[in-house]
Amino acid sequence: MIMNEIGSEFWTGSTKCGGSGVAHLLPAGYDARYVLSGRTALDLIISDAQKTRTIKKAYLPSYCCHTMIEPFVTHAIAIEFYDVIYSSKGIEPIFNDTNDCDIVLLLDYFGFINCETHEFASEQHKKGKLIVCDFTHSLFNLKMEYSCCDYIFGSFRKWFGVSAGFCAKRNIWNDFPHLSVNRTYMDLRRNAFDLKQKFIAGEAVNKSIFLEMFDRAERMLETDYKIYTFDEQEKALLCQGDVDFIRKVRRENAKALISNLLKIDDPDIHIPFNMVREDECPLFIPIFIQKEKRGKLRDYLIREQIYLPIHWPVSPMHSLNKHTSEIYDMELSCICDQRYTIRDMERISDGVKGYLKVC
After folding, report:
1. pTM exceeds 0.70, yes or no
2. For a tag on the chain, would you pick the N or C end, based on fewer CB atoms within 10 A?
3. How many CB atoms lie within 10 A of CB 47?
4. How many CA atoms lie within 13 A of 331 on its CB side?
5. Domain extent listing, the chain
6. Which CATH homologous superfamily contains domain 242-358?
7. How much is the CA Rg of the chain, to the nearest whole Å?
């Protein structure tokens, strides 16, 4: 029996190979280096920037993962957050043009391009600020703006079954450090991928074993992520990944999912992005639902074998107010990746409808 789950971690062989690989996703004119994770990349970027200028304060989005905050804190850089809220515009960043920060961190949420973000980046760059862009969410977009970014970084592991990231600099890196392979972490993740593949194929595998392995790997990365890269086996996966296939299926799934979700006539459900433009390839399709109903919806979908993540958990490093905390309380990320079909997208929207009928 093949398990018909939607979501959670990737598994061995879950993404089609035989393509041209991810190398052409990296920006031309930048000195790009492969690293273990997005957090590894950000730590290397900060270390490099501090070699040539004083960085006292960073301008970060209030809506982000704590792993984007932690490297700045580690480097004793003060944090000022710009508000990111859920509004009639969708996910809306509220920028202060006169901020006194030295470095600005920006991203396009879930792969949907925000022109205001790119305009702000250009303005801040003209003022001499260092511009760092997290392209994890928009790695597979057909068109990306790089001209004003001093550094770019991202994680491939959010897109398919690899343990890898990258960082890129508009100029040549200053004494880029030697990176070692985190063998324990790599082997743990790879073994978990293998076990999940057997589970998905219907073999007698205890699901809790590979879930605990994935969790243990995440805990390792929390405290030990600096100056690491990955091994040749992982590099081969990056070189063989079928980028065109990933992009095609994700875009088709995202369009179908959005279309189905927009048909749900319920005041408690909100869809911040109502279309996929030609140059966009979504990472997830976020939906927003009242805080008191989100957990119940998520539990209902789990009973239907649909596992939707929340972006992101709030940590002690976050600094939120009434408006910026709402987005953390309401967001749920719908899966649209290349492991699944249009019928699976219907299962997700049908699951949301099913919950709303009984809640």
Report:
1. yes
2. N
3. 18
4. 27
5. 23-180, 183-221, 242-358
6. Aspartate Aminotransferase, domain 1 (3.90.1150.10)
7. 20
